[in-house]
Design goal:
Length: 87
């Protein structure tokens, strides 16, 4: 399968589906596949096991999160509101 610099991971779709759809899939899949920082040991070793299930390869911590990223923007906001009192 040929992939180019421009389309990256979505090169497998070829000329189908349009630019906007491929761009959004590219952003989601690149974020999903990269190594994320573990909330317990603060090292980059978290990989996605299944939708919403994440595991750190360094410390073995398994936790739930978003479908494509371990901590969703809504969870970050909620954590910040709890930390600073919400006012």
């Amino acid at each position: 399968m040929a992939r180019t610099k421009k389309v990256g991971i979505t090169g497998r779709f070829g000329a189908r589906y349009g630019r906007k759809a491929k761009r959004s899939v590219k952003i989601i899949e690149e974020n999903k596949n990269k190594k994320h920082i573990c909330p317990q040991c603060d090292r980059p070793g978290v990989k996605r096991i299944a939708a919403g299930i994440w595991k750190c390869k360094k410390c073995g911590n398994t936790f739930t999160g978003g479908a494509y990223i371990p901590e969703t923007p809504m969870a970050k906001t909620a954590k910040r509101n709890v930390k600073y009192g919400g006012n």
